[in-house]
Amino acid sequence: MVQNDSSNSGDESAPIVVAPNPAKGIPTGKYRLVGWGVDTTGRRLIDEICQIAAYSPSSQFSQYIMPFSDLNPSYRRKHSIRVVNTGRYRMLKDMRSNKFVKTKSDVAALTDFLNWLEKVRGDADDGIILIYHEIRKASPGMLLEVLRRYSLLDRFSKIVKGFANGFNIAQAKCAKTTKSFSLRVMSKVLLNREDEDFSSAVDRARASYEIAAHLAQGERQDLDEKKPTGTEPEIINFVCPFVNPISAEEEEIAQFKVLLERQNTFRPVFGALLRASRPERQHATHLRRLLAENNINYDKLKQAYENGAKDGLDKVLKSEVANAKETELNELLDILDCFFDPEKKAVQPKPRYYQNQNNNRKPRGTRKSFNKDRNSESTSSPNVSSDNPIEKTGTESEKEKTVEVQ
């Protein structure tokens, strides 16, 4: 697992994004295919599941979960839900219907999900295959982590055999016919459904199942008339090579945690850049990931600088970071050299500039200066008498005249 998104800090706030490693596959057997999807508060390791859904032709499952933290702004727009805090209660609100949804705690929702899986398993003696559709895999790791937190992983492993990513299946099956393999494109091309909303985990779980079943049956004309049940041998045999078993997912999570620890050692070096704007944050995250992927930590670079100064750093980068471009190596060398050299200033992010941010603001003191200039002009006017600086209006003079006549 490697991270591929911006993050303000290291540690467990790094997003979970799995590298495109091929699935290990499982032997063919008596399985049941179930579509699966989750809505989360983000993509980091510490983020939470706020909705879990599953789909099979005979039964469906959906349950909202009340998270402890608020949703990331981008995921709030993606899933069309948000957390409302009334001061006394925290509730989950559907932004499309503008109604509050019924939620449960994560342990209660996961227990209901396991009970539903046991019920829908039926005569599938070898277990259930959960299929989802994600370009960058993140959901399986998040689910396994929360199951481990509540000691439900052993029970889950007895029911579920593994996870299959529908994106990899579509990429292998439709590589010659289309360039995009997202859930929306596959639904439009294969299922003839346009403008379908996939903000909810329920819709994504159903579409993931139907797309995989459609690809397994190979463009059959009677697909809509005869819906598969998820236990057909042709479907199971087609999906099995793309399934990653639970043990392989746990190995990836363990490797990802080791990678996170290695990345966190560079927090003093990239700390300022990770607090910068989003493009700079993404670029700094990429540079830090290059070092961590090649088993380079902070202590190793520090020792290289103490032994050979800048040349020592250059030797380590060019000999061990083989998957980096020349410009990236030069930038890494510049950042590390400026950090370790006490006579140089560390590389800082570019200052943020917001164009036209003060156009709508009036300069201070404009009205006061205008009144002051106006008063000065009135006092210096030759038409104003020094004995009586206040001129009488026409109505006042007429009143005085009428009084004298009377």
Protein described:
α7 crosses α8 (233-239) and α9 packs across α11. This protein has 15 helices and ten strands. The chain is 45% helix and 13% strand. With 406 residues, the protein is an alpha/beta fold. A seven-stranded mixed beta sheet has the order 7-3-2-1-8-9-10. The chain has a three-stranded antiparallel beta sheet with strand order 4-5-6.
Concise structural overview:
By secondary structure, the protein is of the alpha/beta class. The protein has 15 helices and ten strands.
Features:
406 residues; alpha/beta; three-stranded antiparallel beta sheet; 10 strands; 45% helix; disordered N terminus; disordered C terminus
Q: Termini, distance in Å? A: 104 Å
Q: What is the residue-mean pLDDT, rounded to a whole number?
A: 82
Order of SSEs, N→C? EEEHEEEEHEHHEHHHHEHHHHHHH
Spatial ordering of strands, largest sheet:
7-3-2-1-8-9-10
Low-confidence stretches: 1-21, 378-393, 399-406
Percentage of residues in strands:
5-15%
Number of helices: 15
Q: From the alpha-carbon coordinates, what is the Rg to the nearest angstrom?
A: 33 Å
The main pleated sheet reads as: 7 strands, mixed
How would the global form be characterised?
globular
Structural class: alpha/beta
